[in-house]
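Weekend entry, working from home. Most of the wet-lab plans are on hold until the incubator is repaired, so I used the time to fold the two sequences that have been sitting in the queue since the last round of cloning. Logging both here for the record. First:
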Amino acid sequence: MNEELAPVVMFVYRRLDHTRRTVESLLLNELSSETDLIVYSDGARSLDDDAVVNEVRKYLSGVVGFKSVLLRNREKNLGLAKNIIQGVSEVVGERGKVIVLEDDMVTSSHFLKFMNDALNEYAEDERVASIHGYVYPVTSTLPEIFFLAGADCWGWATWSRGWAIFNPDGTYLLDELKNKKLMRRFDFDGTYPYTQMLKDQVQGRNSSWAIRWYASVFLAGKFTLYPGVSLIHNIGNDESGTHCANTSHHDVAVSSKSLRVGGIDVEDSSVARKAFEVFFKTGRVSVFSRLQRRLRNFLNS
């Protein structure tokens, strides 16, 4: 690979075990020794968190195996959204492109190759805003790679031109979705409440940067490239992180083989969109079933 590799930016807080597993999986990638790792460690929110934040920082200060490791320790607590927005903006400003991980993203050993191959392949293609590493455990067979309108947030990459699309103004984004009558498509034909997530962000019920990233790219008419088999397993769905419930619904086995990049049309994949919609519907049924079981258990106790 002749092009300069993209730096990996990882955002961490207080989860030492999650952080260690993410770093260890990344080191198994064939390109890890040629990759710069930049870590943004958010400041402690309280005195109770101070010790565990320092444990994470101590561990990271001893990490070797990458081309370089740069720790950027926040003095104050910014919160996840502000930390990511500022950190990604800084690094794409410095390096022009970036691969982004949070501290609960266990990667396939082929993750870095796929992300760098795709960043190089579509570097000059204005239609493509980002690359994504995670894909849902759908029941149908997906194409080896595919595009969907919008952007995503579990192991992703972009260029400075892609990140320039990001608009932090949730009110503007919500109004645009309403005015252009795009809410149902934004919600995958009504199967997932993305619009409600954006409304909640506007009303201060969540601080999600990711819903604003998705909406920004979606409204701009740009696309994200996905792998047909996930290159990311999110280990944070255990109530240990921000906006994370305890669920195994998103668990995947990461790809054990390298994926090719290129050779497909840059357009929304109807096959993948339908598979996602079915997955989202199944998730709603699963949540409803759990609530019914809890209610029965309560009534019978």
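Second, folded right after the first finished:
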Amino acid sequence: MANKLKVGIIGLGSMGSTHLDIYSKIKEVEVIAIADSIQSRLDGSSKAEGNISGQAEGGVTGLSAIKYLDGMELIENPDIDVVDICVGTDLHFTFVEAALSKGKHVLVEKPLARTYDEAKQIIQLAEQSSTYVMSAMCLRYWPAWVFLKEAIDSNAYGKCLSLNFKRQTSFPGGAFYSDHNQCGGALLDLHVHDTDFVNYCLGLPEAVFSQGYKGPSGGIDHIATHYIYNQSDLSPLVSSEGSWTMQEGYGFNMSYTANFENGTLSYLLEQDETLKLFRSGSEPESINLKEGMGYEFEIRTFVDEILSGNSTNHDLLRQASETVAIIEAEKTSIETCSLVSIKI
């Protein structure tokens, strides 16, 4: 391909490094610039680690790219087509606004923004822009979750009766995660994946009832939520739990259980990944999943949509924005021990 999409990545933490690995496998793109405020990440003498096998495996060593200590300088580079924003959540809006003002395509890591107000402003900017903007809600592209979404939509096992999601790990540590004002605690940084997937599958809930407690971030770091839908429509019973308060050495796991009229799906990613289908009168069936992580398919989709000339996926952006509103309602529910309606 003669003219590759030229990418600049801002932020070389675990997600920025993971994105760097993925771009190196896509022939239609070339990473020509990277930025991080930590010099050792730029020169390769230090490297962020991921919490899932396959994350952040490569690095910057041997990478031929312009290196910036200031992400805003990277955005000013006229040769860059795509800005991939992997900075702290509290900085998402600032960098998205700057990149769009320079006519760049933008991929912004989850969550879309630190607050719902900022998320709404990003939607407005995207609607006014001629470039492509994507919110990196990777779970929507994870093979096991793609399978679940299709099962719900197609009624492959009958009506979905209940959904339960769980995501648990030890505290990730570091200055960013230790300040809930920056990261939003596990409530916004970790649990947001499952809240977004609920919103993606079933639409905006009418209300939430949540319980939780504060942890090492100073904010809500363990959450359990019930998502309330109109029961007259016989919507499924939906709940999720997220935590990064597990003791050191616990590791990371994510799982779901989906109960249908004619089957039960059980998924677990811990050291290994398994998805099983249980049906009355049959032996448990192991489901073979497409190989790869959601990050790969998310970025591939992003690149393909730019190259095909499609407009921004405003449904995804709108839902990612709504997800932040749901998270804020969950926080209020925890603080007031009450059912809280979702207002957007």
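Plan for Monday: verify the second prediction. The two ends are 44 Å apart (CA to CA).
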